[in-house]
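It would be a great kindness if you could assist me with a short task in structural biology. The matter concerns a single protein, recorded as an amino acid sequence and a row of backbone structure tokens. Could you please explain, in whatever detail you think fit, how the structure tokens follow from the sequence? Thank you for your consideration; the sequence and its tokens are set out here:
___
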Amino acid sequence: MDILNYSPKERIRLTRSLSNPEAADFDLQLLRKLQPSHSQLSVWSLNPKRYADDILFSLLEVAPAEEIRLNRRACSAVEQPGAETDKVPAESAPDQTDGEANPTAEDSKAESPQEDEAAQETKAEELHEAKTVADLKEAQQRADEAEERADEAEERADEAEERAAAAEAALADSKKKAASRKKTNTQI
């Protein structure tokens, strides 16, 4: 199997961006297909969600990110029709004796993969926006604190200038007094 030339940093970045424990089974299937001799397959197959990032990181060695995305979409589309029938447990299945079907709330709220994907993207955007707002508030707070420190420093500088001017005036007065004493001492 060809090894892709993603750098370690790029693989880490892609692992973070593609991270989805719900898709771990799909990623594991693709890895098993592309690299059946991988040494960790047996361990990862015991709990794919737990090892989702490890599976994805190894998968990025042998498959490009776009192939992984396409595989996830294809597998979820294939799994979707069968998943709806599995959602209703046997205990809550509609009573077949009266001939009426009792739709459950889950059936009426079932979303298509596109709607689910759009909802996830919306949530991600909302989280990103909330983080951005929090970052902006924090930056504004830091800017306000810096402005306060600058004002305090300016006040201290003004006070220092006043003290320096007072010291110069006192020095000039003492020089005048010393000069007038000299004149009086020389006149005597």
Notes: Residues 83-110 have pLDDT under 50 and may be disordered. The CA atoms of residues 84 and 110 lie 8 Å apart.
